[in-house]
Protein backbone atom coordinates (compact mmCIF):
# COMPACT_ATOMS: atom_id res chain seq x y z
CA UNK A 1 0.00 0.00 0.00
CA UNK A 2 1.52 3.37 -0.94
CA UNK A 3 1.41 6.37 1.37
CA UNK A 4 0.83 9.96 0.24
CA UNK A 5 4.55 10.59 0.50
CA UNK A 6 5.21 7.93 -2.12
CA UNK A 7 6.73 5.43 0.31
CA UNK A 8 5.70 1.85 -0.18
CA UNK A 9 3.79 -0.24 2.33
CA UNK A 10 6.92 -1.82 3.78
CA UNK A 11 8.30 1.49 5.05
CA UNK A 12 8.14 1.55 8.84
CA UNK A 13 6.41 -1.86 8.83
CA UNK A 14 3.03 -0.61 7.69
CA UNK A 15 2.33 -3.93 5.97
CA UNK A 16 2.68 -5.79 9.26
CA UNK A 17 0.21 -3.53 10.97
CA UNK A 18 -2.14 -3.77 8.03
CA UNK A 19 -2.28 -7.54 8.59
CA UNK A 20 -4.18 -6.91 11.81
CA UNK A 21 -5.96 -3.53 11.69
CA UNK A 22 -7.89 -2.18 14.61
CA UNK A 23 -11.54 -3.02 13.96
CA UNK A 24 -12.76 0.12 15.66
CA UNK A 25 -15.16 2.73 14.29
CA UNK A 26 -13.44 5.81 13.01
CA UNK A 27 -13.30 8.62 15.52
CA UNK A 28 -11.34 10.04 18.39
CA UNK A 29 -11.45 9.52 22.13
CA UNK A 30 -9.08 8.23 24.79
CA UNK A 31 -10.01 4.59 24.25
CA UNK A 32 -9.34 4.72 20.52
CA UNK A 33 -6.08 6.62 20.48
CA UNK A 34 -4.96 4.58 23.49
CA UNK A 35 -5.52 1.38 21.50
CA UNK A 36 -3.52 2.78 18.59
CA UNK A 37 -0.70 3.84 20.90
CA UNK A 38 -0.71 0.34 22.42
CA UNK A 39 -0.49 -1.31 19.00
CA UNK A 40 2.29 0.95 17.72
CA UNK A 41 4.12 1.04 21.06
CA UNK A 42 4.16 -2.74 21.21
CA UNK A 43 5.48 -2.87 17.65
CA UNK A 44 8.28 -0.44 18.49
CA UNK A 45 9.31 -2.14 21.73
CA UNK A 46 9.28 -5.57 20.05
CA UNK A 47 11.67 -4.33 17.35
CA UNK A 48 9.17 -4.43 14.50
CA UNK A 49 10.20 -0.81 14.05
CA UNK A 50 13.88 -0.12 14.67
CA UNK A 51 15.27 3.14 16.01
CA UNK A 52 15.71 5.50 13.08
CA UNK A 53 12.82 4.04 11.06
CA UNK A 54 10.54 6.66 9.57
CA UNK A 55 6.90 5.74 9.96
CA UNK A 56 4.74 5.93 6.86
CA UNK A 57 2.64 9.06 6.44
CA UNK A 58 -0.35 9.80 8.62
CA UNK A 59 -2.89 9.13 5.87
CA UNK A 60 -1.47 5.73 4.96
CA UNK A 61 -1.15 4.69 8.59
CA UNK A 62 -4.65 5.79 9.58
CA UNK A 63 -6.12 3.92 6.61
CA UNK A 64 -4.13 0.77 7.38
CA UNK A 65 -5.26 0.88 11.01
CA UNK A 66 -8.85 1.75 10.03
CA UNK A 67 -8.90 4.82 12.29
CA UNK A 68 -9.26 8.56 11.89
CA UNK A 69 -6.25 10.77 11.25
CA UNK A 70 -6.96 12.76 14.41
CA UNK A 71 -6.91 9.58 16.54
CA UNK A 72 -3.64 8.55 14.90
CA UNK A 73 -2.11 11.97 15.63
CA UNK A 74 -3.18 11.75 19.28
CA UNK A 75 -1.57 8.32 19.52
CA UNK A 76 1.66 9.76 18.11
CA UNK A 77 1.54 12.45 20.80
CA UNK A 78 1.29 9.73 23.44
CA UNK A 79 4.34 7.93 22.03
CA UNK A 80 6.25 11.20 21.71
CA UNK A 81 5.57 12.02 25.36
CA UNK A 82 7.15 8.68 26.28
CA UNK A 83 10.25 9.50 24.24
CA UNK A 84 9.63 6.80 21.63
CA UNK A 85 9.05 8.87 18.48
CA UNK A 86 9.73 12.35 17.21
CA UNK A 87 7.76 14.15 14.52
CA UNK A 88 9.24 16.91 12.39
CA UNK A 89 7.72 18.87 9.51
CA UNK A 90 8.57 17.31 6.13
CA UNK A 91 10.83 14.74 7.83
CA UNK A 92 7.94 12.64 9.17
CA UNK A 93 7.78 10.63 12.39
CA UNK A 94 10.94 8.78 13.32
CA UNK A 95 11.47 6.10 15.98
CA UNK A 96 13.95 7.43 18.53
CA UNK A 97 16.92 5.52 20.00
CA UNK A 98 16.05 3.18 22.84
CA UNK A 99 17.98 5.25 25.38
CA UNK A 100 15.50 8.08 24.79
CA UNK A 101 12.49 5.93 25.72
CA UNK A 102 10.90 6.25 29.13
CA UNK A 103 11.34 2.56 29.87
CA UNK A 104 9.93 2.96 33.38
CA UNK A 105 6.63 4.32 32.12
CA UNK A 106 3.95 1.76 33.14
CA UNK A 107 2.55 1.69 29.59
CA UNK A 108 5.97 1.04 28.06
CA UNK A 109 6.55 -1.75 30.56
CA UNK A 110 3.20 -3.26 29.57
CA UNK A 111 4.12 -3.07 25.88
CA UNK A 112 7.44 -4.76 26.59
CA UNK A 113 5.63 -7.73 28.13
CA UNK A 114 2.85 -7.87 25.52
CA UNK A 115 5.04 -10.25 23.54
CA UNK A 116 8.20 -12.11 24.49
CA UNK A 117 10.22 -9.64 26.57
CA UNK A 118 13.87 -8.99 25.85
CA UNK A 119 16.12 -10.88 28.27
CA UNK A 120 18.45 -7.94 28.82
CA UNK A 121 15.50 -5.64 29.51
CA UNK A 122 14.07 -8.02 32.11
CA UNK A 123 17.47 -8.25 33.76
CA UNK A 124 17.76 -4.45 33.84
CA UNK A 125 14.38 -4.19 35.57
CA UNK A 126 15.43 -6.58 38.29
CA UNK A 127 18.77 -4.83 38.69
CA UNK A 128 16.84 -1.61 39.26
CA UNK A 129 14.61 -3.32 41.80
CA UNK A 130 17.65 -4.86 43.51
CA UNK A 131 19.17 -1.39 43.91
CA UNK A 132 16.01 0.44 44.99
CA UNK A 133 13.77 -1.90 46.96
CA UNK A 134 16.13 -3.36 49.58
CA UNK A 135 17.31 0.12 50.54
CA UNK A 136 13.70 1.33 50.56
CA UNK A 137 12.71 -1.51 52.89
CA UNK A 138 15.50 -0.49 55.27
CA UNK A 139 14.35 3.13 55.29
CA UNK A 140 10.74 1.97 55.76
CA UNK A 141 11.73 -0.02 58.85
CA UNK A 142 13.17 3.15 60.39
CA UNK A 143 10.44 5.57 59.35
CA UNK A 144 7.14 3.70 58.96
CA UNK A 145 4.02 4.82 60.74
CA UNK A 146 0.87 2.96 61.75
CA UNK A 147 -0.85 3.85 58.50
CA UNK A 148 2.06 2.44 56.51
CA UNK A 149 1.97 -0.85 58.39
CA UNK A 150 -1.79 -1.10 57.96
CA UNK A 151 -1.47 -0.55 54.20
CA UNK A 152 1.16 -3.30 53.96
CA UNK A 153 -0.88 -5.69 56.12
CA UNK A 154 -4.05 -5.05 54.11
CA UNK A 155 -2.13 -5.76 50.91
CA UNK A 156 -0.74 -9.00 52.31
CA UNK A 157 -4.21 -10.09 53.41
CA UNK A 158 -5.57 -9.39 49.91
CA UNK A 159 -2.67 -11.29 48.30
CA UNK A 160 -3.44 -14.27 50.53
CA UNK A 161 -7.18 -14.11 49.85
CA UNK A 162 -7.07 -13.60 46.08
CA UNK A 163 -3.67 -15.21 45.20
CA UNK A 164 -1.33 -13.83 42.55
CA UNK A 165 -3.16 -15.81 39.88
CA UNK A 166 -5.85 -13.09 39.87
CA UNK A 167 -5.90 -9.43 38.92
CA UNK A 168 -6.99 -8.55 42.45
CA UNK A 169 -4.07 -10.46 43.94
CA UNK A 170 -1.55 -8.83 41.62
CA UNK A 171 -3.06 -5.43 42.41
CA UNK A 172 -2.52 -6.15 46.10
CA UNK A 173 1.09 -7.10 45.34
CA UNK A 174 1.58 -3.70 43.69
CA UNK A 175 -0.04 -2.05 46.69
CA UNK A 176 2.41 -3.77 49.03
CA UNK A 177 5.48 -2.59 47.16
CA UNK A 178 4.01 0.90 46.84
CA UNK A 179 3.32 0.99 50.59
CA UNK A 180 6.96 0.12 51.30
CA UNK A 181 8.14 2.98 49.10
CA UNK A 182 5.67 5.40 50.71
CA UNK A 183 6.86 4.37 54.16
CA UNK A 184 10.35 5.66 53.34
CA UNK A 185 9.04 9.22 53.43
CA UNK A 186 11.36 9.89 50.50
CA UNK A 187 9.60 11.76 47.69
CA UNK A 188 12.14 10.65 45.07
CA UNK A 189 11.60 6.99 45.94
CA UNK A 190 7.83 7.39 46.05
CA UNK A 191 7.89 8.67 42.46
CA UNK A 192 9.15 5.21 41.45
CA UNK A 193 6.15 3.40 42.94
CA UNK A 194 4.15 3.27 39.69
CA UNK A 195 7.15 1.95 37.77
CA UNK A 196 8.13 -0.62 40.40
CA UNK A 197 4.51 -1.70 40.70
CA UNK A 198 4.15 -2.11 36.95
CA UNK A 199 7.37 -4.14 36.80
CA UNK A 200 6.12 -6.40 39.61
CA UNK A 201 2.74 -6.84 37.91
CA UNK A 202 4.00 -7.62 34.40
CA UNK A 203 6.74 -9.99 35.46
CA UNK A 204 4.24 -11.87 37.64
CA UNK A 205 1.77 -12.14 34.75
CA UNK A 206 4.56 -13.27 32.43
CA UNK A 207 5.60 -16.05 34.81
CA UNK A 208 2.04 -17.41 34.78
CA UNK A 209 1.47 -17.48 31.02
CA UNK A 210 2.00 -21.19 30.61
CA UNK A 211 1.92 -22.55 34.13
CA UNK A 212 1.22 -21.64 37.72
CA UNK A 213 3.82 -19.76 39.72
CA UNK A 214 6.67 -22.14 40.62
CA UNK A 215 6.36 -21.20 44.30
CA UNK A 216 4.24 -19.07 46.59
CA UNK A 217 6.01 -15.70 47.07
CA UNK A 218 3.70 -14.58 49.88
CA UNK A 219 6.00 -15.83 52.69
CA UNK A 220 8.82 -13.72 51.26
CA UNK A 221 6.60 -10.64 51.44
CA UNK A 222 5.60 -11.50 55.02
CA UNK A 223 9.28 -11.62 56.04
CA UNK A 224 9.75 -8.13 54.64
CA UNK A 225 6.69 -6.89 56.49
CA UNK A 226 7.70 -8.49 59.79
CA UNK A 227 11.14 -6.88 59.64
CA UNK A 228 9.67 -3.46 58.81
CA UNK A 229 7.08 -3.80 61.59
CA UNK A 230 9.88 -4.71 64.03
CA UNK A 231 11.88 -1.66 62.99
CA UNK A 232 14.81 -3.86 61.97
CA UNK A 233 16.35 -2.06 58.99
CA UNK A 234 19.08 -4.64 58.34
CA UNK A 235 16.60 -7.54 58.35
CA UNK A 236 14.15 -5.64 56.15
CA UNK A 237 16.89 -4.86 53.63
CA UNK A 238 18.03 -8.49 53.56
CA UNK A 239 14.49 -9.85 53.27
CA UNK A 240 13.64 -7.56 50.36
CA UNK A 241 16.88 -8.47 48.61
CA UNK A 242 15.96 -12.16 48.84
CA UNK A 243 12.43 -11.42 47.60
CA UNK A 244 13.74 -9.66 44.48
CA UNK A 245 16.40 -12.33 43.81
CA UNK A 246 13.85 -15.15 44.03
CA UNK A 247 11.47 -13.26 41.73
CA UNK A 248 14.28 -12.95 39.19
CA UNK A 249 15.00 -16.68 39.44
CA UNK A 250 11.33 -17.43 38.76
CA UNK A 251 11.29 -15.10 35.77
CA UNK A 252 14.46 -16.64 34.33
CA UNK A 253 12.83 -20.05 34.65
CA UNK A 254 9.74 -18.82 32.78
CA UNK A 255 11.86 -17.31 29.99
CA UNK A 256 13.88 -20.52 29.61
CA UNK A 257 10.81 -22.57 28.68
User: Would you tell me the structural class of the helices and strands?
Assistant: mainly alpha
- Tell me the number of helical segments per DSSP (H or I, 4 or more residues long): 12
- Strand order, main sheet: write it out: 1-3-2
Report the average pLDDT across residues: 85
Shape: elongated
Largest beta-sheet details = 3 strands, antiparallel
In what range is the share of β-strand residues?
A: under 5%
Radius of gyration (CA) equals 21 Å
Q: What are the low-pLDDT stretches, counting only 5+ consecutive residues below 50?
A: 1-15, 18-29
H/E series: HHEHHEEHHHHHHHH
* Helix percentage range: 55-70%
* Number of β-strand runs: 3
What gap, in angstroms, lies between the N and C termini?
38 Å
Distinctive features:
elongated; mainly alpha; 257 residues; disordered N terminus
Brief synopsis:
With 257 residues, the protein is mainly alpha-helical. Helices cover 63% and strands 4% of the residues. The protein has twelve helices and three strands; from the N terminus they run ααβααββαααααααα.
Structure in words:
With 257 residues, the chain is mainly alpha-helical. It is 63% helix and 4% strand. It is built from twelve helices and three strands. The chain has helices at 14-18, 30-45, 58-65, 69-81, 106-112, 119-143, 146-162, 167-183, 187-190, 193-207, 218-229, 233-255; strands at 54-55, 85-88, 92-95. It has a three-stranded antiparallel beta sheet. The longest helix is centred in the middle third of the chain and has 25 residues, at 119-143. It is elongated. The model is unreliable at 1-15 and 18-29 (pLDDT under 50).
